[in-house]
Amino acid sequence: MKDLFGKALQDYFNNNYTEDLITSTNISGADDLPLPYLFRSYSEMPKLEQKALQLAKGEVLDVGCGSGSHSLYLQEKGLSVKAIDISEGAVRVAKSRGVMRVVQQNILEETDMFDTILLLMNGTGIFQELSEVSKYLKHLKSLLKTNGQILMDSSDIQYMYEDDDGGLWIDTNANYYGELDYYLSYKGEDEVPMKWLYLDFERLQQACESVGLQCEKMMDGDHFDYLSKITLSEN
């Protein structure tokens, strides 16, 4: 990876903001991802994110922390937070903004245990493919303390396959419709494409149950998105 995401965050933080990130997928055209949005305050966050931060408790792991906005809010509330991201640039920015404990690493490398694990801004994205969901959930489960919780959001993107008449053009012989190829570019450079998973709630719930986790929907967002709370099964 070229870490264009990290470069963009560093540019914005260092007052070199001249243009936004450009994102697209294999089923959608180019779209701007405004850099100021990645530095948003609590009051600027979607209700779904605000709800997740309200539910956070104890020792918190912020997965894919980006510029550290969620971690900073929780620190200010007095919670102990460990923030992780695979982007070197993001980690640098989060540290510079005041996140006290930030590590550049993949979630699968994490070994500490937590009361709350946060995966926001389509937290299921890091699973990459439907076939990988159980592996990631098992690992997340191993990081939960007694009475711990995973707060994760995602979207059911079936709506993106609807035609003008409301019919669906999903290829039933193809992979799960939430598996996307994700493209990112910044200042004329293209990042290495990556796989990104949007997971509907029912499939997430089934996957959780298959590995001994309970999954509860906490709220629906404004646009086919939802927040889930995942906990250890009682039996």
How would you portray this structure in words?
Helices cover 24% and strands 31% of the residues. The chain has helices spanning 4-13, 47-55, 69-76, 88-97, 133-142, 201-210, and strands at residues 21-25, 28-33, 59-63, 80-85, 102-104, 114-119, 144-155, 179-186, 189-190, 194-197, 213-220, 225-232. Strands 5-4-3-6-7-12-11 form a seven-stranded mixed beta sheet, sandwiched between helices. Strands 1, 2, 8, 9 and 10 form a five-stranded antiparallel beta sheet that branches. The protein is globular and about 45 Å long.
Task: Give a brief description.
It is built from six helices and twelve strands.
Fold blueprint:
Elements: H1 4-13, E1 21-25, E2 28-33, H2 47-55, E3 59-63, H3 69-76, E4 80-85, H4 88-97, E5 102-104, E6 114-119, H5 133-142, E7 144-155, E8 179-186, E9 189-190, E10 194-197, H6 201-210, E11 213-220, E12 225-232
Parallel strand pairs: 3-4, 3-6, 4-5, 6-7
Antiparallel strand pairs: 1-2, 1-8, 7-12, 8-9, 8-10, 11-12
Helix pairs in contact: 1-4
